[in-house]
Amino acid sequence: MIDWDFAYKIFFISICGTFLSMGILTLIILIIDIIFTYYKYYKEYLKE
Amino acid sequence: MEKELFQLMFQEVGVFHLTLGHVLMWLIATSLIYLGINKKYEPYLMLPIGFGIIVVNLPLVFMGIGAMTDFGPLLSNPITFIIGAAAQIGIPVIMLVGLLLGFDLKESTSIGIIGCADGPIIIYTASKLAPHLLGVIGLAGYSYMALVPIIQPPVMKLLTTKKERKILMKQTWSVSKTERALFPLIASIVIILIVPKSAPIVIMLMVGNFFRESKVVDKLHSVVEGELLHICTIFLGVCIGATMNATVFLTKETLLIFFLGLVNFALCSAFGILMVKLLNLFLKDKINPLIGSAGVSAVPMAARTSHILGRQADPDNWLLMHAMGPNVAGVVASSVIAGIFLSLLL
Q: Nearest residue on chain B to A11, judged by CA atoms?
């Protein structure tokens, strides 16, 4: 007997969990990119 | 039932079990890694020890792939993480179809994971959830990975217009050496804190990549990328082949699994393309939808297929490096979804 209720929940949790993890990684990488870009400009500014 | 399932998920989420001791150990590990990379103090020991301390203190095999993977295109265009996630939606869809066709939950999940198009993940998940189907699922996965240039183009052409295929993408920025070295550490921490059961897959992928990007352990990198990967491939191939005796393999279930695997590949490619089209509604610099299908992993074959179709539409359209972003994002996303399945079903 298939537990469809459990199967649907696995379906939604797997999709939401994957998007959540990848979304968090996207935000972290974007923040790091911004920090590094500003740091690069700041170093160039100091050289000038 | 609902309450129990969410309780199970929360118990599994590592971030709720984090203590001050874990964070202190991360600081010690970071110092070792810093000494290894920046000061060149015994990097051959400091790097593996440092990485090991970080991952073992996350409350809780595929190192060669990580050592070969360049996450640069992904880091230079982080939105492609989302495309990689979208290209995994076909996996739970096929899980439900498998249930309808008479497979049990663990079997249909293992069949669904074929769509991630990543050999080690397919084998790892199938060996845990449905070891009796390991041979068929492994063979279907690797066969379709080789057939990506035949399976994907019809789906890509069906879901995109000629005008969309001609979209020229903006040059992405270059990624610094520090960012490249930081990524495997950050990705390991984030993913394992959210989905601890994906740890064996994510750690092996990321430690291999960490060796590559640190640039101070060339010999370890070369062994992992070369000899170790070849040895693993030999054992993997022989072990999968050995599970396929006639009584197990020559059944109607085998045909059904191959059919579902094919549909799965097409479906995952389609979801990747559709996600790009959705993102394009909000983005100023449009993304060529052809790179969406590369989100199914199958590195680098899927990215190459996107590139070839892009050049067929416009000979000046060079999509390869853009497509590598969702391609490697698919590797990360598929290890996450496999971890979620293992958390809920084991």
A: B92
